[in-house]
Amino acid sequence: MFTVKEIEEAHAKVKSGADFPKYIQEIKQLGVTSFETWVKDSHTNYFGSNAFSAQSTPKYNDLTISDNLNKEEFARLLKIHQQGETDYFTFCNHCAETGIEKWIVDLDALTCTYYDTKGNEVLTEQIPG
User: Fold this and answer.
1) H-type alpha helices, 12-70
2) What is the pLDDT of residue 116?
3) Whole-number Å distance between alpha carbons of 76 and 58
4) Quick check: 27 pLDDT over 80?
5) Please, what are the domains in the chain?
């Protein structure tokens, strides 16, 4: 099975949202089937087959997640990030400011779903394969 260290080595190659699809393919090859990232501190729960899981440590001090969802602004900032114009920490700040609490990536379906602080689905995107 995979280790958080292997996943973090793959993630270190990601410089912007434009690099995300390659990262997804790399960790899928490690055996990751899904993961859940919390915007508050960027800790991530990784899941594999046979109920295997691993959790990363927080990546930064806690951000305050807005209770006021701004779906339109989030979608605009997400596009900018995907075009490679912002780094990961900036993107996480944008998520917090627009009310995104976490995202869940399903590596089999190749989807990334963003959630607000109430647990509502805000946006689901296909990840380019």
Assistant:
1) 20-30
2) 98
3) 26
4) yes
5) 4-126 (3.30.1810.10)
